[in-house]
Write a structure and sequence with these properties.
The chain is mainly beta. The chain is built from 2 helices and 10 strands; from the N terminus they run βααβββββββββ. A 10-stranded antiparallel beta sheet has the order 4-3-2-1-10-9-8-7-6-5. Helix 1 packs antiparallel against helix 2. The longest helix has 9 residues. The radius of gyration is 14 Å and the shape is globular.
Length: 138
């Protein structure tokens, strides 16, 4: 049985995010704004169908996919690129590979207790984010 990612998750920590954004060639003005944000994650999981909403006061990003099926991901509003993305189960973790202009791009997501861990990669840059599951009513 795969990990249950369902829920609303509030950010606790965000380490090395600016270096990750630099690796994506995000301009300095947008990087400065982005590093001030503390986005939430709203995740709906129905079997292998996932919707991950990243919500902030500045900009929202929605990702919807079926685990194990490659799809074209439009990253407008992130770094304005498109890539071919595949998200797979590796044990209890979701592992994402994003093929496109940037080498070594992707992320790994897993749950430990009431915390959601997200490790985002591009090239040599690695950003680690931790979120805490919010109670009903958020």
């Amino acid at each position: 049985m795969p990990t249950d990612f369902n829920g609303y998750w509030k950010m606790l920590s965000n380490s090395n995010f600016e270096e990750y954004l630099k690796g994506l060639d995000v301009n300095i003005a947008l990087r400065k704004i982005a590093t001030l944000l503390r986005p939430d994650k709203d995740i709906t999981q129905n079997g292998d169908h996932m919707t991950i909403k990243t919500l902030s006061a500045f900009r929202n990003y929605n990702m919807e996919f079926n685990v194990g099926q490659e799809f074209e991901e439009d990253l407008s509003g992130v770094d304005d690129r498109k890539c071919m993305t595949t998200v797979s189960w590796v044990g209890e973790k979701l592992v994402c590979v994003q093929k496109g202009e940037k080498e070594g791009r992707g992320w790994t997501q897993w749950v430990e207790g009431d915390e959601l861990h997200l490790e985002m990669r591009v090239g040599d840059a690695v950003c680690k984010q931790v979120f805490k599951k919010a109670q009903i009513g958020r």
